[in-house]
Amino acid sequence: MVVWSRIRKDFPVLNQLYEGKSLIYFDSACMALKPIQVWEAMEYYYKYLGACGGAGRSTHSLGAETSLLTEQARQKVTSFINAESPNEIIWTRNATEGLNIIAATIPLTKDENVVTTTLEHHSGMLPFYKRCTETGSELRLVEAKEDGTFDPADFEEKIDDKTKIVSFVHASNLTGSVAPLEEVVRISHEHDALVISDDAQFAPHQKLDVRAIDVDFSVISIHKAVGPTGIGVLYGKYELLEELDMFLVGGDVIEDVVYENNKITPKYLPPPHKFEAGLQNYGGILGAGAAVDYLEKIGMDNIHNLEQKFSRKLLEGVLELDKFEIMGPMDYKQRTALVSFRPKSDSVNHNDVVEYFNELLPQHKILMRGGNMCVHPFQYQIGINPRKGEGVVRASLYIYNTMEEIEIFLGELENFAKVID
Ligand SMILES: Cc1ncc(COP(=O)(O)O)c(C=O)c1O
Prior knowledge:
Layout: H1 4-9, E1 17-18, E2 21-25, H2 36-49, H3 61-80, E3 89-92, H4 95-105, E4 113-117, H5 122-135, E5 138-142, H6 152-158, E6 163-169, H7 181-190, E7 194-198, H8 210-213, E8 217-221, E9 232-236, H9 238-243, E10 254-260, E11 263-268, H10 282-298, H11 300-321, E12 324-326, E13 338-343, H12 350-360, E14 364-367, E15 369-371, H13 376-381, E16 392-396, H14 403-420
Parallel strand pairs: 2-14, 4-5, 4-6, 6-7, 7-8
Antiparallel strand pairs: 1-2, 3-9, 8-9, 10-11, 12-13, 13-16, 15-16
Helix pairs in contact: 2-10, 3-10, 4-5, 11-14
This protein binds pyridoxal-5'-phosphate.
């Protein structure tokens, strides 16, 4: 049994009074808070190692231990997402970098196309838009339904034998909706198209099993999974990673650079090192390993069950007030613990809500994000105009939140609704 109140104690941010008020952190979809165990792993690196790791680098004791711990962390991520081999796990700066690596290195010709959706985070869409613009390939957009869910038939319509890759958001950072990735993979594979799933909002909240889903590539944002900033993961099936072009080149991706007859011939390392140019973020990698350990110890099923309770209470509570328009599906089971909403009244906008909850409550600061959440196309699609300053407020929860916090939030939201009437 998980004692959630004990989990919360691992996050000292929540135990402080900030400007004399207690904090309710509802912005985990942007950035998760970090437990002590993660800082300790990072501290160990900075305090006792501080050296470089990596293939072909310093083999002295500090370098060797850094390499060992880095590879152990890679193994932890391998199990976390059930990849077949640690050689399929590439350290990146964040999910965005992983998406850019795939978009930039996948072979793509003018007569091929890329399929993505209107619900993508810009990071899942723009790298492919850029690449298609460069190659002259077509970028096809599947429209999400008004509630942020998808009709598989729309993928059947857009994906054909000329589709090279499908970039798909597994769980949306705007609507919280969890999409039928298996269906998309099935349809894509029928046409020999590859799928990259954006798991930035999925992997921290539910068990991601890349082999069961049979997805070809996936990206994870470690900072949304109680890990440090500046570290992410790109997963790829090994044989596909082998085929991809180089991305960044330089040190650490090289087996040899032969010099003969006044010419150089580089020989590159196989994956994953092929994609890890230069010295790495060793402190961050050790922190990532600790983050994954931390989540595994709680259990991804326990996390999912807790979040389903949050999702239900939050969704039903905001709906009941009847003063706010809610993005996403109305069935809490189809969502992560995240609700984006905006006042129905024209007298206030999303920024007013965020400011009210951050600044004007007597005892608390309830921290939420307001704006367009890097998902402009879907908002245009459903009639929210970012150019006119329109947007939403997002309350997103995680393992350190409590039902009591949701009750406080809903009570204050009710008070706010009275003020704007
Ligand atoms: C769905 C989704 N994809 C990608 C990203 C980008 O993640 P990162 O900051 O790790 O690049 C985010 C960040 O909010 C996201 O929510």
